[in-house]
Amino acid sequence: MRNPEQTIGNLMDKQKVVYVGSVDEEGFPNVKAMYTPRKREGIKTFYLTTNTSSRRVGEFLKKPQACIYTCDRRFFRGVMLTGTMEILTDRESKEMIWQEGDTMYYPGGVEDPDYCVLKFTAVKGRYYSNFKSEDFNI
Length: 138
What we know:
The chain is of the alpha+beta class. The protein has one domain (about 5-135): Roll (Pnp Oxidase, Chain A). The protein has 3 helices and 8 strands, in the order αββββαββαββ. Strands 1, 2, 3, 4, 5, 6, 7 and 8 form an 8-stranded antiparallel beta sheet that branches. β3 (about 40) and β4 form a beta hairpin. The model has no long low-confidence stretch (mean pLDDT about 95).
């Protein structure tokens, strides 16, 4: 992979779903499908929306280790990014990724106490394409 930021960025931008992994209290992994990140900064930082009351938020508050994975099923290639997840509840972060129609999930709008932002910060990744895997640092 010549340019990880471009290759991974393009792959992420074209998908509709990412899989977010967390670690539960007993040390077991949990994975959940989510809509793709609302915003990304290169391939290091990603912002997603979720419910403050969700299981995932509780797990990330206790253990911030996380991963996100997405794949292009058509060409059978994918990427897993590993890093940490922060829970952001400040108004500025919530407004940054708020979209029209979000009141369907968060009826109280940007101030809804059950609306928060997940900020994922990647430290490394693993890319799969053409029947081989490649690790890379971010």
